[in-house]
Design brief:
Elements lengths: L1 H25 L12 H10 L7 E5 L5 H10 L2 E6 L2 H13 L6 E5 L12 E4 L3 H14 L5 E5 L10 E6 L9 E8 L6 E7 L6 E10 L2 E8 L2 E11 L2 E10 L2 E12 L2 E8 L4 E11 L2 E2 L2
Parallel strand pairs: 1-2, 1-4, 2-3, 4-5, 9-16
Antiparallel strand pairs: 5-7, 6-7, 8-9, 8-15, 9-10, 10-11, 11-12, 12-13, 13-14, 14-15
Bound molecules: S-adenosylmethionine.
Length: about 290
């Protein structure tokens, strides 16, 4: 009886060990090791992203939860952290409960590549350059224009940041004693053919613009009443667009400073002419272009 019991125990122990090894082999390997962002840099990230109580922040690979926890405590935001390591998820949830903010700071176990973050208004990350690049198409395709993306130390390749700050961190545990904080705004689709009219008069006419777009960078061609004009200083931040048009006519130079917001295939805003008059700007897109993101 004793012998049988011991044989049974040995068999179940072997089976348990084999099961454990298989589970380890199947378990998802972290794409990035756990290294916490120094709190000073967390604060700089929240500043860069201008995080407020109106925001829903998602930290991709949330570690001990500090970015979400500080966003809730300092700014009154809501947040979720997605993290592969269940021990770190438990630590983060316990800390949120200890701080009394568990209703607004939540941490879930899982792979960040499978997490649906489309409702976020701010995404934070401290990952690696190639992971940022893998995430880039999803960020650009699934998030609303104007969503802020804040990354500690690693950029997004050819997608140039809208802001970059360097922070001295003498206590940093590895590498040079500085951290980089990058900010991007998810750009609206501005590419395509747009047209609008300006009220009759000296500066009036029919405008036709073709805008080309690589990430948030825009360039374009402009015709006014069928004649070539120039587009200068085009800026796109989220859905906010600004451009200056210059037209030479009758030996005079006319300038127009347009600013507005893109909503679908419409732009609504204002234009200021060289003689300091302002008018409404209402443009419609007749053909969509493509945002180049390679
Ligand atoms: C460098 S740490 C950053 C932690 C935290 N965001 C911070 O800034 O303090 C990266 C974290 O991502 C987690 N991680 C790595 N690969 C992941 C994946 N595919 N899905 C979810 N989390 C992942 C790691 O376990 C680690 O905790």
């Amino acid at each position: 009886m004793e012998l049988m019991h011991s044989l049974h125990f040995k068999r179940s122990t072997t089976a348990f060990c084999l099961f454990g090894l298989a589970a380890v082999a199947l378990a998802q390997r972290a794409d990035v090791p756990y290294v916490p962002t120094p709190l000073k840099v967390v604060e700089a990230m929240l500043d860069a992203g201008r995080v407020t109580a109106a925001d829903y922040l998602v930290d991709l690979g949330s570690g001990d939860g500090r970015v979400v926890i500080e966003a809730v405590k300092q700014r009154g935001a809501r947040g979720t952290g997605i993290e592969l390591d269940p021990n770190l998820v438990a630590t983060a949830n316990a800390e949120a409960a200890r701080e009394g903010i568990a209703a607004k700071a939540k941490f879930v176990s899982g792979n960040l590549f499978a997490f649906d973050f489309k409702d976020a208004t701010v995404i934070t990350m401290y990952l690696l350059p190639h992971i940022n690049l893998d995430l880039r198409p999803r960020i650009l395709n699934s998030l609303r224009p104007g969503t802020r993306i804040v990354s500690h130390d690693f950029d997004m390749g050819k997608w140039r940041p809208d802001l970059r700050r360097e922070i001295a961190v003498p206590e940093k545990s590895y590498g040079p004693p500085v951290s980089q904080v990058y900010l991007w705004y998810v750009p609206a689709l501005a590419a395509g053919q747009w047209q609008w009219r300006m009220p009759a008069g000296d500066a009036g006419g029919s405008f036709q613009a073709t805008l080309r777009q690589t990430f948030q960078q825009l360039s374009g061609d402009l015709m006014i009443d069928g004649g070539a004009a120039a587009i200068q200083d085009v800026k796109l931040q989220g859905d906010a667009i600004e451009l200056t048009a210059v037209r030479e006519a009758g030996g005079r130079k006319h300038t127009y400073e347009f600013s507005g917001r893109i909503e679908g295939d419409k732009i609504a805003g204002r234009v200021r002419t060289g003689d300091d008059k302002t008018f409404e700007w209402l443009a419609t897109r007749s053909a969509r272009g493509q945002m180049s993101i390679e």
